[in-house]
Amino acid sequence: MPLALKDVLTARGMPTTCGSRILEGWYPPYDATVTARLRAADVVILGKANMDEFAMGSSTENSAYGATRNPWDLARIPGGSSGGSSAAVAAFEAPLAIGTDTGGSIRQPAAVCGLVGVKPTYGGVSRYGLVAFSSSLDQAGPLARTVTDAALLHAAIAGHDPLDSTSVDRPVPPVVEAAARREVPGMRIGVVRELSGEGYEPGVQARFDEAVALLAQLGAEIVEVSCPHFDYALAAYYLIAPSECSSNLARFDAMRYGLRIGDDGEAGAEEVMSRTRDVGFGPEVKRRIILGTYALSSGYYDAYYGQAQKVRTLISRDFSAAFERVDVLVSPTTPTVAFPIGAKVDDPIAMYLNDLCTIPANLAGVPAMSVPVGLSDGLPVGFQIMAPAFADDRLYQVGGALEAALDARRGHSLLAAAPAL
Amino acid sequence: MSTPATVLTTPAYDDAVARYEPVIGLETHVELGTASKMFCGCSTAFGATPNSQVCPVCLGLPGALPVINEAAIRFAVMIGLALNCQIASWCRFARKNYFYPDMPKNFQISQYDEPLCTNGWLAVEVEGEVHRVGITRVHLEEDTGKSLHVGGATGRIHGATHSLVDYNRAGIPLVEIVTEPDVRSPEVARAYVEELRELCRSLAVSDVRMEQGSLRCDANVSLRLRPAPGEPEAPFGTRSETKNLNSLRSVERAVRSEIIRQAALLDAGERVVQETRHFDEASGRTSSGRSKEEATDYRYFPEPDLAPLALSREYVEAVGASLPELPSQRRARLIAEHGFSGRDLVDMGNAGVLELVEQTIAAGATAAAARKWWLNELARRAADAGVTPAELAIQPVQVARVIELIAEGSLTDALARKVIDGVLAGEGGPDEVVAARGLAVVTDDSALSAAVDTAIAAAPDIADKVRSGKLNAVGPLVGAVMKAMKGQADAATVRSLLLERLGA
Questions:
Q1: CATH class for domain B445-501?
Q2: A257 touches chain B (CB under 8 A)
Q3: How far from A224 is each of A116, A193, A227, CA to CA, in Å?
Q4: How far is B273 from chain A (nearest CA, A)?
Q5: Is A286 noted as a catalytic residue in this protein?
Q6: 3-state class of A181 per DSSP?
Q7: Closest to B299 (Cβ–Cβ): which among A252, A273, A293?
Q8: Is A384 helix (H, G, I), strand (E, B) or coil?
Q9: For A188-239, what is each residue's pLDDT tens digit?
Q10: Is the complex ipTM more than 0.90?
Q11: Which of A318, B5, B333, B411 would suit a FRET pair with B377, their CA atoms being 20 to 30 Å apart?
Q12: Which residue ranges form the domains of chain A, and what is each CATH number?
């Protein structure tokens, strides 16, 4: 089975660039655990998929190797940061892809390309060989055309890895069985009140509401749930992720591998480091390194990083409280459909708002899926399902049921409506 | 901008400490003797080809992740318990962020505000007086690589044309042991490091070889005026930190030199700058390094790649139960059981024979004889051969047998040395060597009588002198008899036989 691997996971024999100039020419001497498991399952790695530099972005415009386009409309973004992965699968260049998700980087590209994308429970899939953006949030997962395909890929890469101390030693949830069930009678589904309303495109909200109604018809019990601290998730995320990234990306210093600029025999190590990082990193990466460096600085730590960690705890408690009442939570995956290339590059805050719905699951470490639920103005809309930690199978049960009912109603899969490239 | 140079008068050390009280705190790094590194499986062996003991983890390659070495945790807990510390039931690693080419990730995995061990003490004895040094904390961290600066005259970075980095050391587990500012003299500072070294050695957690850098010490020194009688103590002064002292002697010398330097500054009304300093062995002086005022902000935060460490009480108790006898306990026992003096213990400890002496006593030798033979004869032979006494090809039980043979009169000290020669040469145990080399003291009276008669007959003039009462003149006759007996006679016995025969 061929697969496109996001260029943030190492694979022997291929360069790993993370979409950055700073890793130009670097061939990793080892396979990521995800890569090794794929190879062991006879998966053929077709190639490395483009991405926002070091997975920082929501549009795959922040790649040193050029922007990736959305197969549904070539003038639009394919989502990000796993935009190369989503575009490859939506364009039928690869049947499957691996993405990584730190704040929505699998689910948002899946949503805007009409695919199924899953961020597994934190600790469910090994991060060994995943070049870290934000260690406490990063998680690799599947991008596929159907819920069943995603489940099969999920099962192939998940499971405990002694090389990753944050990997959890417990059985992989029965995702393949759950995907095959295709029914939801008696399930309690919570609609997150905070993830709707102003800022959500009418077409997106309409597809979402229709999907919720469909789940009710299928026998699920629908309840509205409030998660009050989700309003602070974006702010907390943009302190925690940059803080960790400022430290994780410190190793790119021209000393051992990758790009080296300014080594003219006169310049000292510090100057070579500085010049290389100046040339090697793009503006978004620099913005986040500076932000994170500031947030961790002596005298600011408590006000920023410390405070963000408290918000993170409150968000986890929101999830825990909600999951006492419901089996899964649902929301739109993104507030909008794919936007035109270039539309938000000069407005970082507008770009960050893409991840409003997806970030809470990363902060709490819980699993989440985006499943396509139709079109708005001819562009795909994603439906997000979130489950308690290690109950990844519930995503597949609900997603599988929704996919089957929508395909039956439509008479074909959503991707069959995609314009031919 | 430069300030006008003040001419400082350097006070004598005794004079300086008469007026100022030194306040000293020590930070000691001990490389743990685990087989593999702190966060990966690479070997920790010293002296390998540069960059041959590395992997994606300790090179900090993109995507690689750390996994805690359980043995390093156990060793650190052992040190903590031996230093009377509390062991945290929950603690975390933290990242210390700064850029340096010998740091593969440009952060060091260390511990910050949640160390593994806190609040302990170590008792240190100097000239019969016991000083209790408070231990603030013991924490675990990874070592950095080692930079080699090439092209300059001094091997230092200043003047070098390029630098080479060996990452074999990167990721070797280190514990950092930080004292309270409890130490008040260079002698106690040295004794503390020495005691800590003995402690780590007895725990077998490190080879603690200062010259190889497996134990390194930083000394924080400040001075304050001694209070007049009845007045309260002055607050602590500004401290300097002298880094990387790599011998016990350097610890003492560097602290002493800092005391004199700071006293001169204070005498001249100048202030001591808070900074790191380097100690130069050749000059015996410290020189200014990086000023703390422009020091890096390390931006510590909890290491997200590692789960928090939660040691169960049972685990800590089990480690505690496994601790061997500690140096202080052992010293007390040896003094009580064998009547050694404190000086004896220091000498035997320094010579590396304490363990061997104990085993020799256990094999039946008297304490005094065991001490004498190991400390004098065998330690010297080990030094000559360039090995440690424990590496000599003679067992404590064999030394005990030699001592037994001397005690029963079968060997003289001179013969015993020959027996030891034989054992060391691989000729077998003491009894075999005695038999093979024919080294036993000859007790056969007829052979001895004949030799005595021959010697007297060969030197009639000496014999006459002795007969006339000059007893000291008998020496050459004793020598002649011993020579005839090939040394296998007891000189004292020979002397009395001669005197008897000459009627003196």
A1: mainly alpha
A2: yes
A3: 24, 6, 10
A4: 22
A5: no
A6: helix
A7: A293
A8: strand
A9: 999 999 999 888 999 999 999 999 999 999 999 999 999 999 999 999 999 9
A10: yes
A11: B333
A12: 2-417 (3.90.1300.10)
